[in-house]
């Protein structure tokens, strides 16, 4: 099994060096090979389990209450501007 | 109780410390100072802590002493505890042992922290772990591995390795850990202490740095079973902030430990005495089971689904959940950017991303979730025949420092015997049963159905009782 490490890294938003890509490619392939024995287990008609609690449709009252202040929310950021988080631009300015 | 003043207060169990505080044999400040001094003396060898909060701890101890003198009764009043560094602590750095969060100071407390604070405890600091709880050794910590107090050339296990080492070394009275699959039981086994993994949903995950959200279970690491029960009473219960917590009532676990184990059906499965199992582990666990049989337990041989498939299921489910949970670390609102992840986290994020990516979902994630159902059904069938299942906790003794280097599947293989019960969300406990000839601890696990904490604690308590006078129980690490 050959996997496209650059594509996966892009999906995962992980900056990887060339050296890391080579290393992880090999390790990922090993892990994939390892878990492939799961194919031996017959699962025809078996429902997948996504939670083990048996609890469903758990709700709580939709009440407004005290939450973090703006200062608390911003207390760990390295890039605040005018009391807001500063992020990189997502859209480019249209030149036309 | 005058003799207590002569011995080191930090060596006390939680129950002993509670009694001593209540009887005014010593103060919380004295008890806390004894722990802090032990931490100072042994940290250069152990590296069990990421952060020691000496000043805060002494403040909290003073407040506790005031409350004690006012005859306030709280379950953990004045008791020093160490907390794994993946529990958000308001105003105290919470790193999950990763450089991504090296300077992150949460503006809120996790539910577990809120509860132990309300119970009056003194927090000594935050303990080291595998970064993001990814591992079974603490070797993936970005702040250096912790060492096993019984032999500092060996690892404490993980991911709650700092918590387990800290309890074993009497740096603290007890500790809080968290388990996704093995992260409480395995380090407890390697360090010779009691580690309880509660049923999934028994203890709130709110404010715990998320790893595998369908698996994460916070729980106590302690010197005795009774201490474990006392802490579980504080931690357990429904939490509005975590919709997966159960509304089932919290029992007075510490009052319900004494149970007759006559007629108790103990299931033993050959599948858990796997090839490659350490011979001394096998011998000690089998002898321990015989002791329970002598005390009246009925041993039944049962066949369980091969635990090797649990490694595959866990690898796929856990890494998939990791890739989603760790997507939030973008370095914008807090923490450093994604370049600061170390190898193990990168590997897991990448594998999870791959397993969930278009075209592979059915082959990996869906298949793993189906086999998860097979494992759950298999345990259900087993618990139709027996009350508890007993097995070794770890297939090996504590491994030497360096054992995990570049072994991409190390953690999963080390956790093969604890992964199936985690996948099914069951309750389980590790208790020490003796030592190897080389002086390393050996642990045994007792697994019960969901919400059978009372039962697994009772069986563990009974084992402690019938082996109370065994010579190995007197041993202390030489640090």
The count of strands of chain A amounts to 2
The CATH topology name of chain B reads Amidase signature (AS) enzymes
Structural class of chain B: alpha/beta
- Number of β-strand runs of chain B: 11
* Sheet with the most strands, sense and barrel status of chain B: 11 strands, mixed
- What's the helix count of chain B? 15
Helix content of chain A: 25-40%
Which whole number gives the mean pLDDT of chain B? Answer: 95
The percentage of residues in β strands of chain A lies in under 5%
Radius of gyration of chain A: 23 Å
Count the DSSP helices of chain A. 3
Give, in order, the helices and strands of chain B.
HHHEHEHEHEHEEHEHEHHHEHHEEH
Q: What is the N-to-C succession of helices and strands of chain A?
A: HHHEE
- Please tell me what the overall shape of chain A is: flat
**What Rg of chain B is obtained from the alpha carbons, in whole angstroms?**
21 Å
List unreliable stretches of 5+ residues of chain B: none
Beta-strand portion of chain B reads: 5-15%
pLDDT < 50 stretches of chain A: none
Whole-number average pLDDT of chain A? 92
Span of the ends, CA to CA of chain A: 46 Å
């Amino acid at each position: 099994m050959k996997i496209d490490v650059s594509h996966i890294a892009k999906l995962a938003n992980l900056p990887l060096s060339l050296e890391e890509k080579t290393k992880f490619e090999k390790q990922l392939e090993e892990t994939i090979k390892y878990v492939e024995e799961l194919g031996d287990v017959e699962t025809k008609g078996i429902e997948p389990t996504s939670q083990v609690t048996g609890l469903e449709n758990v709700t709580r009252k939709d009440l407004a209450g005290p939450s973090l202040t703006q200062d608390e929310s911003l207390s760990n950021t390295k890039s605040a501007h005018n009391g807001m988080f500063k992020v990189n631009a997502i859209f480019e300015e249209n030149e036309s | 109780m005058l003799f207590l003043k002569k011995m080191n207060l930090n060596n006390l169990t939680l129950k002993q410390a509670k009694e001593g505080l209540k009887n005014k044999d010593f103060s919380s400040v004295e008890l806390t100072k004894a722990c802090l001094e032990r931490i100072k003396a042994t940290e250069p060898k152990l590296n069990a802590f990421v952060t020691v909060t000496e000043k805060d701890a002494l403040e909290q101890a003073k407040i506790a002493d005031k409350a004690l003198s006012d005859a306030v009764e709280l379950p953990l009043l004045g008791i020093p505890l160490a907390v794994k560094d993946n529990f958000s602590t308001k105003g105290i750095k919470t790193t999950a042992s990763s450089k991504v969060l090296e300077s992150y100071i949460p503006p809120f407390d996790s539910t577990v922290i809120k509860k132990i604070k309300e119970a009056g405890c003194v927090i000594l600091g935050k303990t080291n772990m595998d970064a993001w709880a990814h591992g079974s050794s603490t070797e993936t910590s970005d702040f250096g591995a912790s060492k096993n107090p019984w032999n500092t050339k060996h690892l404490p296990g993980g991911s709650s390795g700092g918590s387990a080492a800290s309890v074993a070394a009497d740096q603290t009275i007890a500790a809080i850990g968290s388990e996704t699959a093995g992260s409480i039981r395995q380090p407890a086994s390697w360090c010779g202490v009691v580690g309880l993994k509660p049923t999934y949903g028994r203890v709130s995950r709110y404010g715990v740095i998320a790893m595998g959200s369908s698996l994460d279970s916070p729980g106590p690491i302690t010197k005795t079973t009774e201490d474990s029960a006392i802490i579980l009473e504080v931690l357990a219960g429904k939490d509005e902030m975590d919709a997966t917590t159960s509304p089932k009532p919290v029992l007075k676990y510490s009052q319900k430990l004494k149970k007759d184990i006559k007629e108790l059906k103990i299931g033993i499965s050959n599948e858990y005495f796997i090839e490659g199992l350490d011979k001394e582990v096998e011998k000690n666990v089998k002898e321990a089971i015989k002791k329970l049989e002598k005390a009246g337990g009925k041993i039944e041989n049962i066949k369980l689904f091969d635990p090797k498939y649990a490694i595959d299921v866990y690898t796929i489910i856990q890494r998939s959940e990791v890739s989603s949970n760790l997507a939030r670390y973008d370095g914008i609102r807090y923490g450093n950017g994604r370049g600061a992840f170390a190898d193990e986290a990168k590997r897991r994020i990448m594998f999870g991303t791959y397993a969930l990516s278009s075209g592979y979902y059915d082959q990996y994630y869906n298949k793993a979730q189906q086999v998860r159902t097979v494992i759950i059904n298999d345990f259900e069938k087993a618990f139709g025949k027996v009350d508890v299942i007993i097995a070794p906790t770890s297939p090996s003794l504590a491994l030497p420092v360096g054992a995990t280097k570049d072994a991409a599947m190390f953690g999963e293989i080390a956790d093969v015997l604890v992964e199936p019960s985690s996948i099914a969300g069951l309750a389980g406990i590790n208790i020490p049963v003796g030592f190897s000839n080389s002086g390393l601890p050996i642990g045994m696990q007792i697994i019960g159905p969901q919400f059978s904490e009372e039962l697994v604690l009772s069986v563990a308590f009974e084992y402690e009782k019938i082996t109370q006078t065994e010579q190995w129980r007197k041993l202390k690490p030489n640090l």
